[in-house]
Amino acid sequence: MEKDSRKSSSSRSSRSSRKSFRLDYRLEEDVTKSRRDKSGGFTNPWPTWKFPSYSTIFRFFFLDKNHSNVPSSKEVLDRELPILEPFFVQHPEQVGRIGSGIRVTWLGHATVLVEMDDLVVLTDPVFSQRASPLQFVGPRRYRDPACTVAQLPRVHAVLISHTHYDHLDAGSVASLNARFGADLRWFVPLGLLDWMQKRGCENVIELDWWEENCVPGHDEVTFVCTPAQHWCKRTPVDDNRVLWCSWSVLGPCNRFYFAGDTGYCSVFEEIGKRFGPFDLAAIPIGAYLPRDVMRSQHVDPEEAVRIHIDVQAKHSVAIHWGTFALAYEYYLEPPVKLKEALERYGLSEDNFFLLKHGESRLLNSEEVFE
Asked: Which residue intervals make up region (Disordered) (predicted)?
């Protein structure tokens, strides 16, 4: 099992036989790598980034009205946001039987399971009840995960976008590592390797923006760490010590883009020019109000549609909503605003679709096995 922790010249040369999906591009200096400030923390290089002022943050936590209004009734939630048993729990023999297609299953929040090009890829896995360092305080999910780690099919790769607790969960990392061990390859942004290794993960690839690597035995599929506009923090003293990112997965039959968590900026058009069109993108639509607090770090549904257009996605699935109440919009508002934005841009709900928790959609294939 290959255990390189960063892309190296040897790993690059070992993939020299790759033909149609070699990344033969010339990077401009201003977008080649991530940037750091004088204190050593990573920074966002776009003028669209502006962290909220202390007064704005104070108002958000103590004065602004929270309109999320998540019902306490399980009966209501089951009706409005039903949780389906994923197809792979009912029929595990069907996993990967998609030919040249790509299948996505939404497990909740930013966790999706994608089958493409003989690989199973999992994004930002969070199976715990709280997005918190402690499981008795902090944001509690109001919709359970659609499955447990034990019910997952064989996973080849996990993509981590950044370190916030609703995207990087220590309990879920430990469970996945216990289940798959060194056979599971973790793709993480710069600065996260040490954290992963301390939790027993051996097969970790840490990348800077625009760097690439692959899963051993699947050299034809390229995983590229692509930029996003966000920030990282897990403790009082680790501000932006780890990079944040999106991910572009480029295979011989399909291309998948995972936006992670992001504000809107110009980089998505650049990603689309370099790696698009994507057959599928997973783009966040929730946790966007109030805008003066969230604008730089979380897109709203209209900006999500703009990302869909910028990266040249043929289809997109909505993520980052309907699971945790992390901001102040009504909990069922994101899909409504997404539909309105699609109409304004002349797109259909087939172009940018919603899934129920646990639901799947198969694309680019005439055969449906579900």
From this structure: 1-21
Distance CA 278, CA 281 (A): 7
Which residue from 11, 234, 256 is spatially nearest to 122, judged by alpha carbons?
A: 256
Instruction: Report the sign of the C-alpha dihedral through residues 237, 53, 330, 263, in that order.
Output: negative
Mean pLDDT (whole number) for 156-174: 98
Cis peptide before 290 (omega within 30 of 0): yes
261 is in an annotated binding site: yes
- Do 310 and 272 form a contact (C-beta atoms < 8 A)? yes
* 91 marked as binding residue: no
Supply 217's token pair. 């035995």
Quick check: helix, strand or coil at residue 307? helix
Residue 170, marked binder: no
76 vs 79: CA distance, rounded Å? 5
Residue 230 marked as a ligand binder: yes
Q: Does residue 167 have a known ligand-binding role?
A: yes
Residue 5 pLDDT: 43
Residue 233 in marked binding region = yes
Spatial CA neighbour of 280 closest among 156, 364, 186: 364
Q: pLDDT-derived band of residue 15, with 50, 70 and 90 as boundaries?
A: very low
Given pLDDT bands bounded at 50, 70 and 90, which one contains residue 32?
low
> How high is the pLDDT of residue 21?
40
Q: Is 156 annotated as a binding residue?
A: no
Taking 80 as the threshold, does the pLDDT of residue 52 lie above it?
A: yes
* 162 has binding-site annotation: yes
